[in-house]
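Case 342 in the screening queue. Each case pairs one protein sequence with one candidate compound; here the compound is iron/sulfur cluster. For every case the pipeline is the same: read the inputs, emit a complex structure as tokens, and attach any notable structural observations.

Predict complex for case 342.
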Amino acid sequence: MEAVVLGSTGIKVNKNGFGALPIQRVSTEDAVKLARKAYEAGITFFDTARFYTDSEEKLGEAFDGMREKVYIATKTAAKNADEFWEQLGISLHNLRTDYIDIYQFHNPSFCPKPGDGTGLYEAMLEAKAQGKIRHIGITNHRLAVAEEAIESGLYETLQFPFCYLATDKDIALVEKCKKADMGFIAMKALSGGLITNSAAAYAFEAQYENVLPIWGVQREKELDEFISYIDNPPTMTDEIRALIENDRKELAGDFCRGCGYCMPCPAGIEINNCARMSLLLRRSPSALQLTPEVQAKMKKIENCLHCNKCKSKCPYGLDTPALLAKNYEDYKQVLAGNVSVN
Ligand code: SF4
Ligand code: SF4
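Case 342 output:
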């Protein structure tokens, strides 16, 4: 079994972490079954967020009466100290616990620090002193904020997107965390569904001993794949290297990662899927994307107000309205049978 130690937290877990965002989309019964199955197989790190609707409640149900057997990380998107305490109280209640192992600021647009006027970091320290949280972490999609968090020395973990499409700067971030004795929690290791070969994804992450990937799990079949990597971890082979190289070429440049940070959209456009439809059509069974429901979602792009709210929020600096228009044009061509996909 490959294990990861999350820097100065000393938390040592199997290299397969459980990302609890997708369990919002399944019933409580199925979510509990997935989380328990993961635990029984040896997965002990579970990452959720206050923002993921009922995900915390589902984990609370799954680990009721056995809290100390797992590590739970959750996140707060609080903008001030009052919101911080309110959200922390709800998370503790939902998770049926009196402590959170790693409490993370959820993708803030700046790096919270003591004395910055928000009171957020002071609240973290107070929560830690009260024993309600054990370690302070931060998640982000912006390189500059992530780097500032590392340099600040205020955080024990960083959660950042990290998959085999990573740039040299992303890889440097992993090294900086290692030097700073900070845990690196890798989100989006499957790039929001664009990476379909999980063994290749694992083999990439395995090259970095301080990285803990948290796999977003919604179906038992997906979980079973990661469980199989506990005893048989995939390693980098020439074949996997070639596949990664090919994907890097195919996904080079500006593409939507499906993170959803640009939402909500005032025109009701489901940007996180619509802005990457061309890739979804070609990298997963296209029939799933050509249903009347998806067609209706894509048609909403016609209602785009060009308000640019999405563009200003995209952490990858994408021209989101233009990307939506491009994807819609391609979608119409595919629907009309003018362009063939799989
Ligand atoms: S520019 Fe269009 S897609 Fe973006 S937020 Fe505004 S209406 Fe929505
Ligand atoms: S357009 Fe940007 S913010 Fe919106 S889902 Fe895609 S990558 Fe995320």
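Case 342 observations:
- The mean pLDDT is 94.
- DSSP finds 14 helices and ten strands in the chain.
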